[in-house]
Amino acid sequence: MADILNKWLKGLEKTRKVTFGRLATMFGATEITVDTWDELEALFIQADLGIETTQQVITNLIKEGDRSGVTRSSELRELVKQELLSRLDEPVFPDFSHLKPAVVLVVGVNGSGKTTTLAKLGKMQKDTGKKVLFAAADTYRAAAVEQLQVWGDRLDIPVIKGQAGADPGAVAYDAIQAGLARQMDVVYVDTAGRLHTRFNLMEELKKVDRVISKTYSGAPHATWLVLDATTGQNALLQARAFKEAVNIDGVIITKLDSSARGGMMFAIQRELKVPILYVGLGEKPEDLQQFDRQNFIEGLIQ
Ligand SMILES: Nc1nc2c(ncn2[C@@H]2O[C@H](COP(=O)(O)OP(=O)(O)OP(=O)(O)O)[C@@H](O)[C@H]2O)c(=O)[nH]1
Ligand SMILES: [Mg+2]
After folding, report:
1. What lines the ligand 1 site, CB under 6 Å?
2. What pLDDT, in 10s, does the model give residues 118-130?
3. CB-neighbour burial class of residue 74 (10 A; exposed 0-12, middle 13-18, buried 19+)
4. Is the C-alpha dihedral spanning 195, 196, 199, 200 positive or negative?
5. Nearest CA owner, ligand 1 atom 7
6. Cα gap 75→62, rounded to integer Å
7. CB contact set of 138 (below 8 Å; sequence gap of 6+)
8. pLDDT surpassing 80 at residue 160
């Protein structure tokens, strides 16, 4: 357990040092004044919580502070932790055990970390004895297929791919057929990165989604949106656009380790109202962690 907490502490080091770390000075022994709230507000906005979330947090803290008679800023620490914790949902992981296979579609903008995350998810499942298949439905770049193949080779996970330039829906179709025939447990479908503002690309994603549901009733059983933590509030715009195109039922936040903007997690949760399932705390396969609210808050506020 201590090992896992350490991973979170290390992964959140940047966010903690750049923004949330300043809370420690604020939690000094002084009395709470109007300035305290102003300072807190500025800090949360800088930490990328977003204006709406920040305002709600401050309002609630003032209310809760009054109610529980907190007058010293040193007592604020627990209040802040509790308030922030209450803004994150406990992740509920889908139970795929009755499916052979479950199909998980992984979507997001260019470079958000989809392919790497697929590899990490694949490894996680394989380590628990599950049979995993990758579908290289990013057919835009030959390098994209190769990248997934390299992971497949390294992790000993088969990869279904098409020709470069092939229809991504056709690759997804082939992968599902293979997954059914080989009685796989999970098929992870990698997709091309697409700018959320490009109409045609978003339409193409809808088409892949439709092909999957026509090929296999009930599929995709999950569609996970991968968002890069270093993009801060911009991730919100991406989230909105992807949510309009496909049915997002889980979010994965990557690169928390390279970001000082981990506060965006609160804004994303508020905006999407779907659980954050996993976070990337580094580049190695074992750096993908199931989202844990408690560890996340501990990583932000020491
Ligand atoms: N530090 C860090 N790097 C990450 C993490 N996740 C992904 N990366 C890096 O981000 C870069 C892009 O990752 P990819 O998995 O190729 O991203 P993608 O979304 O598949 O990109 P496209 O296919 O081009 O859309 C790679 O260099 C990854 O190693 C993470 O959690 N932490
Ligand atoms: Mg990719």
Report:
1. 108, 110-116, 138, 144, 193, 254-255, 257-258, 280, 282-283, 287
2. 999 999 999 999 9
3. middle
4. positive
5. 113
6. 13
7. 114, 115, 144, 145, 148, 168, 190, 191, 192, 193
8. yes
